[in-house]
Amino acid sequence: MPQTTVEKRILLSPPHMSGREMHYINEAIETNWIAPLGPNVDAFESDLAELTGINGAVAVSSGTAAIHLALLLLGVKKGDLVFCSSLTFVASANPILYQGAEPVFIDSEPETWNMSPSALECAFLDASAAGRLPKAVIIVNLYGQSARMEELVSICNQYNVPIIEDAAESLGALYKGKASGTFGEFGIYSFNGNKIITTSGGGMLISNNVEALNKARFLATQAKDLAPYYQHSKLGFNYRMSNILAGIGRGQLKVLDERVMARRTIFNRYQEELADISAISFMPEMPQTFSNRWLTALTIHEETAGLTAAKVLEVLESENIEARHVWKPLHLQPLFEQCKYYLHNGNENISEKLFQTGICLPSGSNMTRDDQMRVIQCIRNSLGTG
Ligand SMILES: *Cc1c(COP(=O)(O)O)cnc(C)c1O
Question: From residue 154, how far is each of 54, 118, 147, 187, 318 by CA, in Å?
Fold first, then answer.
């Protein structure tokens, strides 16, 4: 039957305000704290540090800026190697190029979709044999699922190489009861508009090393020396978060737990309603971890389904539903085509397989049950199991 009406668009992961943001924004306006820095920034930093159980946090203009600062603090410079997960958003690796350093990409493993310890080990063996160890390893927690931190930390410790945990997507997730993002020398979160909580745009650098965080504050405010005039001895950046946006962040942080539970409920409903379709496999949640299920991700078995993941996305788009491919691995990006890539178990290409078969479904914490049922029905129709 030809479709006559276009239904309202269902978005992948739209912002979801708590209603408490205006209080802090108004306070900033009434006290005229319309600047980068101010009381909302200080409170947002200390609230987030307390929530994640870490010594300190620095609020910045984006998650990307936080990764860049972490690399600067670890002394990453031109010609250095940095290992990085391949299956991730480009922002995980762009700051490596900002520093003129060389990314080496590491494959995923099937149980977490995150960095493969066996691939990481291979990369370290080669780097060690060549006498050129990386300066840092960037480990990403995809779609709110923690990587195999214990194994990965132990390999990095063996070579004495620090970790930057890219927890942009995994705020509120746990690994063995400990907050995702707190496992490396530095961790970063993002508050971009599509993330689990948002400041419209923003990020946070966290660490137990308070001295390093003070250096980050210095670098993020144009590296202004302690002098009675504008004096600069180091190259700095304008990376701090504004006091108004931090007010939004304070209002959002208060409902983080609710947001995580809402996303998990959405995931569970997809899983229950699509359980009978054998061509679909959901992204696993590794035992002893707690995912925030930022986005519900699944793979489609092409032979069983009789169609590709790309085709399912086309059908969803035709029904005005925003769904996406899983991240295109960075080693496949034209930007990074010169870079090395290490496979899981030496010969399994997990990230490419997940890219070919994986899709992310609308997962906003404010999505209604009716809207979700529309997505579910559309998937069932596309797979001929309506
Ligand atoms: C969103 C995201 C970032 C970047 O955060 P911004 O705040 O958008 O700069 C980095 N890494 C991953 C994995 C992300 O999803």
Answer: 20, 12, 13, 17, 47
Q: Tens digits of per-residue pLDDT, 27-70?
A: 999 999 887 789 999 999 999 999 999 999 999 999 999 999 99
What is this structure's pTM? 0.97
Residue pair 280/312 in contact (Cβ under 8 Å)? The answer is: no
Domains, the chain, with CATH or none? 21-253 (3.40.640.10), 256-382 (3.90.1150.10)
> Given the CA of residue 62, which atom of ligand 1 is nearest to it?
7
Answer for the pair 189, 204: CB distance below 8 angstroms, yes or no: yes
What span, in angstroms and rounded, lies between the C-alpha atoms of 382 and 386? 8
Q: What is the token pair recorded at 383? A: 């797979």
Strand order in the sheet with 358-361: 280-282, 296-300, 358-361, 324-325
Is the minimum distance from the CB of 294 to ligand 1 under 6 angstroms? Answer: no
Summarize the confidence of residues 347-364 as an average pLDDT. Answer: 98
Token readout for 372 is 């979700």
Residue 166 Cβ contacting ligand 1 at under 6 Å: yes
* Atom of ligand 1 minimally distant from the CA of 66: 9
Q: Of 168, 173, 167, 241, whose CA–CA distance to 201 is shortest?
A: 241
pLDDT tens digits along 323-342:
999 999 999 999 999 999 99
Residue nearest to atom 2 of ligand 1 (CA): 168
The SS3 assignment for 85 reads strand
| Residue of 206, 193, 376, 385 lying closest to 307 (CA atoms) | 385
Give 88 Cα–ligand 1 centroid separation in angstroms.
Answer: 9
| CA-wise closest residue to 141 among 297, 245, 248, 262 | 297
CA distance 94 to 339: 13
Token pair 């946006």: residue:
245
Q: Give me ligand 1 centre to Cα 380, in Å.
A: 31
Alpha carbon of 1 to ligand 1 centroid (Å): 41
The pLDDT of residue 160 is 98
* Distance from residue 66's CA to the centre of ligand 1 (Å): 10
